[in-house]
Amino acid sequence: MRVCILGQGFVASVFGVGLERIRAGEVEPYGVPLARDLPIPIDDIEIVGTFDVDPTKVGHSVAEVARRYLTDVPALLDRVPVFRGVHLGSLDGTPVKAEGIDRDQTLRECVDTLVLEYERLAPDVFVNLCTTERPNPIPDRKALFGAVAKDRRKALTASQFYFYTVLRYARSHGAAFVNCIPTAIANEPALETLAAEAGVPLFGDDGASGATPLTSDLLEHQRQRNRLVTSIAQFNIGGNFDFLTLTDPGRNLAKEKTKSAFVRDVLGYDPPHYMKPTGYLAPLGDRKFVAMHVPYRSFNEAEDEIMVLARINDSPALAGLVVDLVRLARICLDRGVFGAVYPVNAFYMKNPGPAGKPAIARTAAYTELRAWLRHKTTPTVADGGPSGSAAP
């Protein structure tokens, strides 16, 4: 099972290193929810290439990049190259002096360049780990196709453009797209429909790896006991590059939306809440600080509260989920389950697609996911499933 990573940041580096160390028997697959419960073993995952626009990474190997952050980097990752991807302004305002292939090529030319590279690498699954982008809705397929055809660069983010190239590649090769960042792909109806039509399993949006799934399960606990949650405060402070980019208000807004999407779905009402990544502090590095406060009313108007303080290694938490997601993507390809796959998204994503589906508590989603995996799925559009061919 061949995997291509979009965005060679810390999560991608931890994913590659952890994967090879599991394969070598150096570490146990802790943090991988379905580690030994899927028919595809972890050892079958092979990273064949990654794409980035940081000139200090492009042209190097994944191992060379990973050694800047990590120790015990397996030598096998020296074989995995970092290619130049597309920028489209997605890193504007950050310290990275990004250089994408779109600097010298039209968007149509960029599509051809990337698809040719994909054909050489022959990936089955694409995992989007790009830095959080500013929101940019795609109203319909005409807007997507027109932006590429007419070279309207400001109309697309890098993630949306990568998704378009995967649709092109999937027409003749078959592939899945896993969107681990807040940019709406699985929740954008036009894009979700295109994925279903092109035979692309689509997971997204925004991997739920830290405080968000914990908060949703605490709220489910309160709902089951008919307690009234009167407010919710949850914030995160971290020192990695993604937290640095989230100091940009537009990017922070995109993240805030996915972090709080589940409140009404779980509780059935919408108490006052403040849930967002709120700060960057370099000394924290990748080990973010999480604080949570959930006051509530119980029997006879008793007033109680839950308070949580945690330190969480941000990137490993998401990288462990990616190990499952790429294997689940292969299962969907084999079963013919296309489009936004809600049983997967409900457990692994903060804002599970397709649009309109509820963000349920992760404890409930876990049970439903395991039941779905036991079921012999018949290919349908509702579960995913093909409905024709309209890939670009």
Describe this structure in words.
This protein has 392 residues and is α/β, with parallel strands linked by helices. It contains 13 helices and 12 strands. The chain has helices at residues 10-23, 62-66, 107-121, 141-149, 158-173, 189-198, 211-224, 241-245, 249-260, 263-267, 314-335, 342-348, 362-374; strands at 2-6, 46-52, 82-84, 125-128, 176-179, 201-203, 228-229, 232-238, 273-280, 287-297, 303-313, 339-340. The strands form 2 sheets. Strands 3-2-1-4-5-6-12 form a 7-stranded parallel beta sheet, sandwiched between helices. Helix 6 (189-198) links the parallel strand 5 and strand 6. Helix 1 (10-23) packs across helix 11 and helix 5 runs parallel beside helix 6 (189-198). Mean pLDDT is 91; it is low at 376-382 and 384-391.
- How far apart are the termini? 25 Å
Class per helix and strand makeup? alpha/beta
Mean pLDDT: 91
The percentage helix is 25-40%
Largest sheet: 7 strands, parallel
Number of strands: 12
Shape from CA axes?
globular
DSSP helix count? 13
Q: Output the helix-strand order.
A: EHEHEHEHHEHEHEEHHHEEEHEHH
Strand order of the largest sheet: 3-2-1-4-5-6-12
Q: What's the gyration radius in Å?
A: 20 Å
The share of residues in extended strands comes to 15-25%
In short:
The protein has about 400 residues and is an alpha/beta fold. It is about 40% helix and about 15% strand.
